[in-house]
Design goal:
The complex is a heterotrimer of chains A (60), B (241) and C (149).
Chain A lengths: L1 H8 L4 H42 L5
Chain B lengths: L1 H5 L2 H33 L13 H28 L2 H32 L8 H20 L5 H15 L2 H11 L19 H44 L1
Helix pairs in contact in B: 2-8, 3-4, 3-6, 3-8, 4-5, 4-8, 5-6, 5-7
Chain C lengths: L1 H27 L1 H4 L5 H6 L7 E8 L5 E2 L5 E7 L4 E7 L11 E8 L5 E9 L7 H9 L11
Parallel strand pairs in C: 4-6
Antiparallel strand pairs in C: 1-3, 1-5, 2-3, 3-4, 5-6
The chains are: A mainly alpha (60), B mainly alpha (241), C alpha+beta (149).
């Protein structure tokens, strides 16, 4: 138990170490998810528009 | 000739899709190992105690901030000189990633500076030039999307990226050229790193993880941009027909 | 092909001009880009009394004296050539100790004493675990804090 507490306390600097790692996690995960969501959205948009074009006799 | 074939968006979509899962998995693995080593398996510093662990996110973020800007400037030059549309897409895809790394470097540096230096922020040459780097990224992103015509925006933003590159050596060498509160370089030194191997290992692993994260994410963002351009082109054809 | 070369040439000329302009601007503002003066720099030119400035150097060994009010500290900042005495009232950063790098901001008094309103710790670029530092000291390899230039 004390080992865990010691670890979380970060030698008294928990208030600085954990926010630094937490912020990095939030920013990097957020950017990751946002970028993938954008890729999915663009794939969806293209899949909606492409069959329509083919049906009209556009080039493949 | 082969250059143009390689740079064709269709080829890019094919090849990049093969690299992407590997880069993503390796990035996740390296960051997981780096976090474990950085937080648990590495020693505290003799002076700075456990705050030295902030280094494992701060320093790779700062390296990536410079790396991404360099990649953006090189791509922009490729676009302006050789008119490679994919180069412009690469620069556009890189900008937000670089901006995030720069913001992280500033924020984690601040969290490190408060307990060790005794201040969140000072206007020394290193910190100020990194803040300028963040503004350059934001300026690039704003300019690239400022025009209705993406070609116009791309050109203007590419020129900004190239002009702003002058700031990269200033960030890098600011700690050598001027008196700064920020300490000089520890890793890439002529006389070898001044970091103990037990601390250098997690630092380099995290840096590798961040680089792979960039590779995976720039592919995702470039693919999205290629597809968005395609949708736009098709819509214009449809509207014209 | 010709056009490409012209664009490339234009880009390279632009880059050289830009680099030249940046170098000129940076050297013109050299003074302002320095975050602090060293004691030697301070001694070289007479500073007007009461002008605010930043001074950087090492806290001289054995020079830290706590005043009786418990909050005011006097110490000497040195760059191993020149020295400047400093007095400061307030909270010191965790890293503040004798032999440690420091940047103080304040105004010089008529007595040559710098009255500091802020004291920042400046650490060097060496990182190692405590055990390694102790081993280095034991073997006499420890070279101590590097003097801030």
């Amino acid at each position: 138990m004390t080992a865990i507490n010691d670890f979380l306390a970060m030698g008294g600097y928990a208030l600085f170490v954990w926010p630094a790692f937490g912020l990095a996690a939030v920013v990097l995960v957020g950017l990751w998810l946002g970028s993938h969501r954008r890729l999915r959205a663009s794939r969806r948009a293209l899949s909606l528009i492409e069959p329509e074009r083919r049906a009209r006799g556009g080039e493949p | 000739m082969s250059w143009h074939l390689l740079a064709s968006p269709a080829r890019f979509m094919r090849y990049s899709e093969r690299i992407r899962p590997w880069a993503s998995a390796l990035a996740l693995g390296a960051i997981a190992i780096g976090l474990y080593q950085g937080l648990f398996a590495s020693p505290a510093d003799y002076q700075q105690g456990d705050t030295v662990r902030i280094m494992y996110v701060h320093v790779p973020s700062a390296w990536m901030a410079l790396f991404c800007y360099t990649a953006m400037a090189v791509s922009s030059a490729g676009y302006l000189v050789w008119k490679q549309p994919l180069a412009e897409i690469a620069a556009r895809a890189t900008a937000p990633i670089g901006a995030c790394f720069t913001a992280l470097a500033l924020a984690t540096g601040s969290l490190w500076g408060k307990p060790m230096w005794g201040t969140w922020w000072v206007w020394d040459a290193r910190l100020t030039s990194v803040l300028v780097l963040l503004f350059l990224y934001l300026g690039y992103m704003a300019l690239a999307d400022a025009f209705d015509d993406p070609v116009k925006g791309g050109k203007a933003a590419s020129i900004l990226a190239l002009v702003g590159f002058v700031n990269v050596p200033i960030v890098k060498f600011s700690v050598d050229w001027w008196n700064t509160l920020h300490q000089p370089v520890s890793v890439a030194r002529m006389d070898g790193p001044t970091i103990d191997p037990a601390m250098l290992a997690p630092l380099l692993i995290m840096a590798a993880g961040f680089t792979l994260y960039y590779v995976a994410l720039v592919i995702v963002r470039m693919q999205a941009l290629v597809l968005e351009r395609r949708v736009r082109a098709l819509q214009q054809v449809a509207a014209g027909a | 092909m010709k056009r490409k070369h012209r664009r490339l040439g234009f880009l390279m000329v632009g880059a050289v001009l830009l680099a030249g302009a940046a170098a000129l601007v940076l050297s013109a503002f050299e003074e302002n880009l320095l975050f602090f003066f060293t004691p030697t720099q301070l001694a070289a030119e007479s500073q007007p009394e009461g002008r605010r400035l930043r001074l950087g150097g090492l806290v001289e060994e054995g020079s830290v004296v706590k005043q009786t009010d418990g909050l005011t500290v006097t110490f000497v900042v040195t760059d191993l050539t020149e020295t400047v005495p400093v007095t400061y009232t307030g909270v010191l950063p965790d890293l503040f100790r004798e032999g440690q790098g420091v940047v103080v901001e304040g105004a010089l008094g008529a007595d040559g004493m710098l009255r500091a309103s802020e004291v920042l710790a400046k650490h060097d670029e060496t990182y190692m675990p405590k055990e390694v530092k102790e081993a280095l000291e034991a073997s006499g390899e420890w070279r101590g804090e590097e003097a801030t230039p």
